Amino acid sequence: MKVIIIDDEPLARSIVKEYLQYYTDVELIAECNDGFEGIKAIQQSQPDLIFLDIQMPRINGFEMLELIEDPPGVIFTTAFDEFAIKAFESNAVDYLLKPFSKERFEKAIQKYRQHQSTQPTNNIIETAAQSPLQQNRVVVKDGSRIKIILVNQIHYLEAADDYIKIVTAEGTFLKKRTMNFFEQSLSIYHFVRVHRSYIVNTQLITRIDAYEKDSHLLLLTTGAKIPVSKAGYVKLKEVLGI
What we know:
The protein is α/β, with parallel strands linked by helices. The protein has eight helices and 15 strands.
C-alpha cells in the first residue's frame, strides 16, 4: 500500500512515519509540507492512501482534495474543527485528532482497510465546505497553476456541463461543482441565482430590463448581460428589496 503524508508540521509527520513502520505492507513514498506539494506528489505517485492535515497554509486539506480528479483514500489529521468533525462523522471516514496515540492510529488504519473501496470523499468535501472558513474563497486549477479567487472578485457564475464557469476581472475559470452548491454557499455574499444557469453578484447590477415574455435581462457594471428567468426575477426582487 503506497502512502503519502501531507502536513505542514514536521513533528506530526514524524509521528505518522514512526507509526507506519509497524506495517510491513505499507510503503511511504512521499512527505509534503503543504497542499501544493501534496497535489504534485499525488499526481506523480498515485498513492492508495494519504494522511492529510486540514489546517495548512496557502490551501487547506479540503481545498487540496477538491483539485484532484480521483482522490486516493484519506485519513485526516487535525486539531479540533467543528465542521471538519461533522464532515467525517457523517461520512464514515476516520480522522485522527492531534495528538493521537499508536492505538488510535491502528484503529484508523483498520477502518480505512474496511472502507477503502467506498470512501465518500466528495460527500466529505460538500459537508466541510459549509464551514465559514471555506466560504469566502474558491480554489481552482488554472492550467498547471492553482489560483485562489476571493468571493468578492467573482462577477457571476455560469453552468457549463459538469463544470461551473467562474467569471472574474482576471478571466474565466472552471470548477467541478454544481450550481446548487454555489447557490447555497454564496448566498451570504450577495449572490443570487437568477436563472438555472446563472448566479450573479448583486453588487455589480446596474440595470434590470424587461426582455421577452416573463423574463428580464441584467446589465452588470462590467458590461455583461445576464438572462433572468421568471423565478429568478422573483428571487432577485426579494433580495434587492424592490
